[in-house]
């Protein structure tokens, strides 16, 4: 089937299989966080050790996603999806029946090796199957799948862990994963082009060390601080490795990850906006639960309920946003979304000890509504400017940058919050001492700690609002884009429609 026939009749059945596989993988990733305390107790491991269930998963993803451009070009989409789903199924079975913590870690790593390939592969299949004028709708449906998992994952896992064993989290995923694997074996066909390229081992090593070290360093910084050699050492190693990796890619005929795609201005602009928005986005997901549970003392269940409408709305809006993108383009949607994010994030920086529960729920929901108008339009508009041969590199680059931006954004905002909290705590302690009151009163100390924490959270939200404002300014320069007639990366004629 040539590209014109494919665009006239996209393989919806095949894409549905890929969608379901990706949904299962993303749902699994959002289920586990709530269960970590229970797992820690059963296997008698410390918090720093149990965190490797999430950190290890993230690191394997960080290593595999940059390499996904090579895999997608070298292997057929059928073989790649079957391999990824097989690995994910094997990892899920290992985790479900793990007799020890070491086996559970191994299961999660194998899961991640399969899940890490699914999103880049699915995105590349959709970019191949749909013409530019219909990609918005297609990517909107993709967004529905990707956002639905985080929307229901934490609430579902909280209920399961409360009533059943943590192993149930894996046991309910396993049959769905097996079904996807069996159906894909019989129904999946090849539609993506394949090139006979060889892996550059040195590039793979540099990429793995570079992206893995940066993700680990920034993820650890939020917990351990910046002065620990484990943090600044791994970040330094990561940066040096990535610089060498980039220079190597620029001089290779068939690079593992193509950095020359940044010669396309709309893709370059979309990458910058996505990095800023990803950094800002995590403020709401990290800071809101801290405020609600730590400062206000609201239960974890009610904290999850507070954030649920926003997550559901963001997921439901994805198909709508996709259709609007096809009709009006990305700039107007991104501008409206980022303006909404800027205003609501600023309002989050004005929280008090008496801010109402339902006001928080509405504010968080409106913020997520704004976010739903940003992510897909910005990303799709940038990818639309790339020639088809560069799509695997574009999807790999976007997914890699989102992971790194999320890790950096979280680490920086947590650091900003902690520094402001310490400064405010010292100021309050001095003012209390000056007034002649004793700091031996535990109730008074608790009240001071809450006020200091509130000040830190508000300041971190203010910084996040500035990031959203910067992204809004950049979005004003977006232009509607379409692929070039000539592949400027590889000097070939490309078929566009």
UniProtKB/TrEMBL annotation:
The chain crosses the membrane at residues 12-32, 52-72, 79-98, 110-130, 142-160, 166-186, 198-219, 231-251, 272-292, 298-320, 332-351, 357-379, 457-478. It comes from the Bacteria. The keyword Nucleotide-binding does not apply. Keywords: Cell membrane, Membrane, Transmembrane, Transmembrane helix, Transport. Its main location: membrane. Signal peptide: none annotated. It is found in: Cell membrane. Gene3D superfamilies: MFS general substrate transporter like domains, Multidrug resistance protein D. Pfam families: MFS_1. Residues 14-483 form the Major facilitator superfamily (MFS) profile domain. It is a multi-pass membrane protein. Belongs to the major facilitator superfamily. EmrB family. This is DHA2 family efflux MFS transporter permease subunit. The lineage of its organism: Bacteria, Bacillati, Bacillota, Bacilli, Bacillales.
């Amino acid at each position: 089937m040539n590209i014109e026939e494919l665009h006239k009749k996209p393989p919806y059945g095949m894409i549905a299989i890929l969608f379901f596989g990706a949904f299962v993988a993303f749902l699994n990733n959002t289920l586990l966080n709530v269960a970590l305390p229970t797992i820690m107790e059963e296997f008698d491991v410390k918090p720093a050790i149990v965190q490797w269930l999430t950190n290890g998963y993230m690191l394997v993803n960080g290593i595999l996603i940059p390499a996904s451009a090579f895999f997608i070009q070298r292997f057929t989409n059928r073989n790649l999806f079957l391999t990824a789903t097989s690995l994910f199924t094997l990892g899920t079975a290992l985790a479900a029946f793990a007799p020890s913590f070491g086996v559970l870690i191994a299961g999660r790593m194998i899961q991640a090796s399969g899940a890490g390939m699914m999103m880049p592969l699915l995105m590349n299949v959709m970019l191949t199957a749909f013409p530019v004028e219909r990609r918005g709708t297609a990517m909107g449906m993709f967004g529905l799948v990707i956002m639905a998992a985080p929307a229901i994952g934490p609430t579902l896992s909280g209920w399961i862990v409360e009533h059943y064993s943590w192993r149930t989290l894996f046991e309910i995923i396993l049959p769905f994963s097996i079904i996807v694997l069996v159906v894909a074996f019989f129904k999946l066909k090849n539609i993506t082009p394949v090139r006979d390229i060889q892996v550059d081992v040195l590039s793979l090593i540099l990429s793995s060390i570079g992206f893995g070290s940066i993700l680990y360093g920034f993820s650890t910084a939020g917990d351990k601080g910046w002065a620990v050699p484990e943090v600044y050492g791994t970040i330094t190693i990561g940066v040096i490795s990535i610089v060498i990796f980039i220079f190597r890619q620029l001089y290779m005929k068939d690079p593992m990850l193509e950095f020359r795609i940044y010669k396309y201005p709309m893709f370059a602009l979309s990458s910058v906006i996505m990095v800023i928005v990803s950094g800002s986005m995590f403020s709401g997901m990290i800071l809101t639960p801290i405020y609600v549970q730590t400062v206000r003392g609201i239960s974890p269940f009610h904290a999850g309920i507070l954030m649920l409408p926003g997550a559901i709305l963001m997921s439901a809006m994805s198909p709508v946003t996709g259709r609007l993108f096809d009709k009006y383009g990305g700039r107007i949607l991104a501008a409206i979304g980022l303006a909404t994010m800027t205003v609501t994030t600023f309002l989050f920086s004005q929280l008090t000890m008496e801010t109402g529960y339902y006001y928080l729920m509405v504010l968080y929901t409106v913020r997520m509504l704004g976010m739903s108008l940003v992510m897909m339009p910005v990303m799709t508009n940038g990818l639309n400017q790339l020639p088809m041969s560069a799509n695997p590199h574009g999807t790999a680059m976007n997914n890699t940058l989102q992971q790194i931006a999320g890790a950096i954004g979280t680490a920086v905002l947590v650091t900003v919050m902690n520094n402001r909290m310490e400064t405010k705590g010292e100021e309050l302690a001095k003012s209390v001492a000056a007034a002649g009151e004793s700091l031996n009163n535990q109730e008074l100390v608790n009240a001071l700690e809450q006020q200091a924490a509130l000040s830190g959270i508000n300041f971190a939200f203010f910084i996040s609002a500035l990031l959203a404002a910067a992204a809004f300014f950049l979005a004003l320069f977006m232009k509607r884009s379409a692929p070039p007639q000539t592949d400027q990366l590889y000097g070939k004629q490309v078929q566009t429609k």
